[in-house]
Amino acid sequence: MPLRTSGDTPWIQRLNPVHDGAITLVCFPHAGGPAGYFRPLASALAPHVTVLGVQYPGRQDRH
């Protein structure tokens, strides 16, 4: 389940918590891929990088 905050939209999913001073990385999945594809990357880069995944319409929770 993505970590949502009040500023999130259906298009952008925060895949790990935000930490002060963290770099923000926006990831666009391959055609047909979900934003959750980047969850392992988000875990590996935390807490120094906040990973945001773009969720295309019709994918995962955007049916």
Question: Structural class, from helix and strand content?
Answer: alpha+beta
| Stretches with pLDDT under 50, minimum 5 residues | none
- The overall average pLDDT, rounded, is 84
Largest sheet: 3 strands, mixed
Q: What global shape is seen?
A: elongated
> So how many helices?
1
Sketch the topology as an H/E string, one letter per element: EEHE
Computed over alpha carbons, the radius of gyration is 11 Å
Q: Helix content range of the residues, please?
A: 10-25%
Describe what you observe in this structure.
This protein has 63 residues and is of the alpha+beta class. Helix content is 11%, strand content 22%. The model has no long low-confidence stretch (mean pLDDT 84).
SSE diagram, text form:
Layout lengths: L11 E3 L8 E5 L11 H7 L3 E6 L9
Parallel strand pairs: 2-3
Antiparallel strand pairs: 1-3
